[in-house]
């Protein structure tokens, strides 16, 4: 089922039910399928509770589907053992989150280097890679700053550097501009666009922000646990 | 370094937890030093009594001061397996000395007949040994020097009589350290003078002895010999090396158990506080665990990270406790030096063992919290506020 032409990441008929309590089952995904093309920027929009985050988590190997398949670069990944799954997460996929999710006690360099270390780099190599990634993203003068000493935009740039440091096939973003003001959001969107153009890294961005969606090559809409191709998505 | 920062993220809490371990290790070090000193004295004593048999009056109690007659010597020496028996008179330096910690201060006069057979060779820091012809001369044990303000050529007072110091012993870590040696005849007469009049009237001072030291012939088992003598003379208290060991081991075992029991209880409390701290820490950092997992951290790595932190807490508490305990032990020994009472001995094995134990305690206490952290579902952990 290798799909070199179109799909770097592919979700096939995903089902996921969360049990929030006794007799309270939430059908987050009801057969969602989605193909992310190689090198594209894809926006996933949709109302709250439509399953956007769930599909992103499952496609990013952070969670497993109850049913269905996930294929990454021609390899099936949803059924991998947890060790192999860790490797996929560390080497092939980068994550960007709404709340930046940096480790507060670590400097910018250490935060980025951690991703390198988990991907198997020695500490010194990981640090060198982190410094390079931060310089590439314009944070060369903030290497030893802790998250609390950085602005929101700078923190998100550190998170982007962390997502990119291992040269992943694909970066998944969960509301990457959610905590940023309009000007900073624009800056981050342009930065991701630039990286996409320069490196060919695919981006999948779950977002409510129409500016983000407009900057993407394509957008899909999620509704009631299914992916649709509607133009208007609220 | 990162582990260090993580531990001190909550400085006050980290300090309190480390302080809990510190108290436990402090107790272990101080109590342990006490136990080590006792063990050392016991071992020294065991060496001291290694290859001979001692005989004293009375069927119970090791060091009876009731007199024996030197006339017993020829009868003992006539026994098979006995090479020589030598007599000595021993008594406490202070007439009214009651029970005390460790070795009491002793005065001993030995007839010196067994000098060449003695395997426990004494060495002299200064001066010379006593000779059979000496009168009113004394050799002073290492711990007695300060206590009696003794110096070569000076005089010391033993139960009202002055003696000229001719020799000072090197430290032996056992009986001789707290002993003043005087000539046999002088010891006999002092001992005699201090006896009640009623007892005196039946005794000849020149025949008095409190202990006979019996040297076996080469190749004869001293324990076997002790048993034979004991069977033949049941009225005497006969102690061979094995029996001596047994006596002291029994009396120190309970003490050592209590000492370590107290220390272990305080460490249990310290360990519980580490578990509490690490559990809190894991809960507070649930999101961080989610981040690390999203970056591809394996369960093992998460476990190792938190275990390293709890081990560090243990190590810091252990080292601090060791330093504080060491200071107290040094201070107490320095204070006791003038009176010759040094009751603590901090051995390398105790020092290393205490810190090692603290680290182990940290690791064991961190097991559950670390395992809990590693099992977190990354998605749930990332959502955690």
Structural class of chain A: alpha/beta
Shape of chain B: elongated
Task: Provide the domain count of chain B.
Answer: 2
Helix percentage of chain B = 40-55%
Residue fraction in strands of chain A: 25-35%
Question: Helix and strand succession of chain B?
Answer: HHEEHEEEEHEEEHHEEHEHHHHH
Overall pLDDT of chain A, averaged? 89
Net shape of chain A: globular
Would you count the extended β strands of chain A for me? Answer: 10
Biggest sheet architecture of chain A: 6 strands, mixed
**From the alpha-carbon coordinates, what is the Rg of chain A to the nearest angstrom?**
17 Å
Strand and helix map with partners:
The complex is a heterodimer of chains A (234) and B (385).
Chain A: E1 7-21, E2 24-37, E3 41-45, H1 52-59, E4 67-72, E5 75-76, H2 82-91, E6 93-97, H3 108-118, H4 123-136, H5 152-164, E7 170-174, H6 182-199, E8 202-206, H7 210-215, E9 218-223, E10 226-228
Parallel strand pairs in A: 3-8, 3-9, 6-7, 7-8
Antiparallel strand pairs in A: 1-2, 1-4, 4-5, 9-10
Helix pairs in contact in A: 3-4, 3-5, 4-5, 5-6
Chain B: H1 2-7, H2 11-48, E1 53-57, E2 68-69, H3 72-77, E3 82-92, E4 106-110, E5 124-127, E6 137-140, H4 144-148, E7 155-158, E8 161-169, E9 179-183, H5 184-193, H6 197-200, E10 208-209, E11 211-216, H7 222-232, E12 236-239, H8 241-284, H9 286-294, H10 299-337, H11 348-375, H12 378-383
Parallel strand pairs in B: 4-9, 6-8
Antiparallel strand pairs in B: 1-11, 1-12, 2-10, 3-4, 3-11, 5-8, 6-9, 7-8
Helix pairs in contact in B: 2-8, 2-10, 2-11, 8-10, 8-11, 10-11
Descriptive account of the structure:
The complex is a heterodimer of chains A (234) and B (385). By secondary structure, chain A is α/β, with parallel strands linked by helices. The longest helix of chain A is centred in the last third of the chain and has 18 residues, at 182-199. Chain A is globular, with a radius of gyration of 17 Å. Chain A has 7 helices and 10 strands. Chain B has 385 residues and is an alpha+beta fold. Chain B is built from 12 helices and 12 strands. In chain B, the strands form 2 sheets. In chain B, strands 1, 3, 4, 5, 6, 7, 8, 9, 11 and 12 form a 10-stranded mixed beta sheet that branches. A two-stranded antiparallel ribbon of chain B has the order 2-10. Chain B starts with a helix and ends with a helix. Chains A and B meet through α2 and α3 of A and α1, α9 and α12 of B.
